[in-house]
Amino acid sequence: MAAAFGRLSGKSSPEWFASCDPAGSKLGSGGGIAQVLADAWQSSGGGAPFNEWLGDSKKLVLLAGGQSRRLPAYAATGKILMPVPVMRWSAGQRLDQTLLDLQAEDYRRILAMAPQSARVLVASGDVFLRFPDVLPAIPEADIVGFGMLVSPEVAAGFGVFFSPRQSPGEISFFLQKPKPETIRELGRDHAYFVDTGLWILSARAAALLMRKCGWSGDRFSGGSASPYELYAGLGPSLGNSPAEPDPEVAGLSIAIVPLPDAGFYHFGTTRQMIESLSSLQNRSPGSGDQSHFWRKPHPDMYVLNSDFEFNERSSANRLLWIENSALPDRFAPTRENAITGLPPACWDFSPEPGDCIDCVPIGESGFAFRNYGFDDPFSGPIRDAVWQGRPAVKWFEARGIALSDAGILPDADIQESPLFAVVSGADSAWAGWLLASTPVESPEFRTRWLASPRLNARELTEQVNLDRLLAQRHSLASKAAVRLWAHRANNPFFRIDLDNAAALYAASGEPVPEARHESPDPLDRMHEAAFVAAVQRARGIDGTASEREATTSLSDRIVAMAASIAPHSTLIDDQILWARSPVRLDLAGGWSDTPPFCLKFGGAVVNLGVDLNGQAPVQVFVRMCREPRLVIRSIDLGAECVVRSFDELADCSTIGAEFSLAKAAFCLAGFHPRFHTQSPATLAEALEEFGGGIELSMLAATPKGSGLGTSSVLSATILAALGSAGGLGWDLEEVFRRTLALEQMLTSGGGWQDQAGGIYHGVKLIETPPGLDQKPSIRWLPEQLFSSLTANRTALLYYTGITRVAKTILQEIVRGMLLNNHSHLDRLFEIRTHALAAYQTIQRESWPGLCEVVQRSWELNQALDSGTNTPEVASIIAAVSDWTAGVKLLGAGGGGYMLLLAKDEPAAARIRHHLTANPPNPRARFVDFALSATGLQITRS
Fold first, then answer.
1. Is 293 helix (H, G, I), strand (E, B) or coil?
2. 207-229 residue pLDDT tens
């Protein structure tokens, strides 16, 4: 499997590398880590010394092998690639996901948060760790362990860190599987944390581990790593008072990261696999989840990657696992059954409680049927071993086979005994004979079993045809995707990764699905249309119309939330109304405010409203005129248009057109019959009812594509001005809502943080709950970090001179949202969580903390859209990197304004001097900014 890992898992070199212990040796956890690091270096190091390669980037090492005696169904591929079902509380999980897929994003988060000194993150491949949304800070240390609070009885089965109660940041010692009474006694003076198996090693710690395994001069002295245990060998030597002192280890610092809200789920046995999955399925979904799937516990029954309806369920069915199998609907499992790998055939055998069978493809057409018991440990000499839940010798006696006839010695380990015959076809009667506790006497099957080539459990993992195994799994997963679509009203279809599901559906050969839009939920109807478009694209068909239907259905629903109104002028004939707003600088959370993500999960952003060069950059002027017409002027563009009809006014869907934004605002302010309570016949009639024509002049004193949210802020300011002029009584929340609708009318599909950043003053966290009606909740933050002591002194605003329009970026991100693309959603959830962490950091008024927040935001934006950091932008950042502690492009990225946070004032002076003396283009410049104390302002002459 190690050799085939990249080809079969889709996780290929150089990002991923798989290795294994040399044949005939068992390296242990420490030796395995050393071996895979050395092998990966030789494969991808490019000739660089090992230490240089190790220091080049952080590494994740997964201990994912083992013989898997107690979970035989996944011994061949390794538990880490065990298929797992979609969690019903999740969003964006894949139908064909593995345990590695389920956990990998959390490992990535930890590596991203770990200090730069961290080099290797070690994790176990047969557990799932559920982490809190906001990870605790990870300290600097040579070895950092992650621990959980559990009872002494639970801790007794694992390694345990002990920390003195008077010095909680220290580690006294580490004990491997201490007795419960020992833990209780030590617990009087120590806090104790069970080891999760997750360790971070610094370069020093990694070098020590390599030496322990025989590494010297970029090679192992014995040709491969020496056996060594990380947890049982290195662990007891850790701490201020180690249980087993080791002079080499004594110089390493150690720290623990307690995980009080985490969960630990073991996948070491068939029973643990099912029980752990059910525990995960039944965990609390958290606030805001309205799914009807939470009304009852998930049953301990799983059917995945299979063609099986399983219609006749009963209360007796429990602890069932059916995977990669094609079974007739009449097939009747009982309880404690694991059925894996059965190819399409007339399977009519009846498994008894506790019966399990795994069909392993061998060669080009052969099969080895591995029959076993649900709780078989698969260890010990065969004369004493348990097989199929009974003494192994009983299986032979029931079939009239002597161990000597089978060439099996009584003292042979059951794992090494040739028990599994390789046959040429899929035969139900054969499977039933293998499983039966009292089989029908069959000389034919007895002779067949004895005469066929037989493999032991270890040889099955070496001779399995992995291509056949995974091809069957993929084929059956395609059939499962078709069934999931057909029954989407009663399953988690609308929460899964629809991009992945569409690819599986497209491979099934079934006709392209049709979206019937039967769901009352507009978001479900949106997902249906997006799924159809994805299937069409996968089949080479143009899916543009279906995708447009998905976005249009969403946009129409948001726009429909804007209530109809009847404006009446509140302006005196010679009066001018003046509205002005700051622009926004986004610090964290951007993209989580974008529909449909915010509508499904809620959004959270931290931003600030700022004036530029001493003035509000966005300004709008409104006055009455005698003629029944709308006159729209752009001061910054030097352009003007006159609107005399509803048709002209409704022509507002062209992004970038000079007056689209203002036209859409007039519509939403009641000057179009779609939004007017009386539906006037003509624009002239509507304006006569209003009290006259309107002249609107607007000014945006920032370049187009600046990244400061100017267009949305201008939209909000125009709406606020028209609302005030029309006596509509809109508060800021209503302006916020209508601006979101305006973005949908423009087909830009943007979020809400831009207008919120401008109309609400100061530094703030803005959150919205899930739902079509996005209601902002504002929590203001201290302004010390952006006061005159820092603004323009250590916090610099720099216009790069590079413009970009967010629509192209936005379309790709929104497509990922429409399809619940797992990588998009993972990043978006992390971005939203980061906004909450940023809120807490700014509350502490920590400048280094703010710099880390901004830098992390920039990293997350790039993870979501790699194209956001263009070569031109990257060169600017690189030129001043020695003096910056945090930097990000503002807005969607690709150009516009850049926020530069300097290490100190002298560093800021160097940044300013260098970029002023060496501008990337003639337009680039520094711009002074100041916090707006007012946000949106409206006054009259």
1. helix
2. 999 999 999 999 999 899 999 99
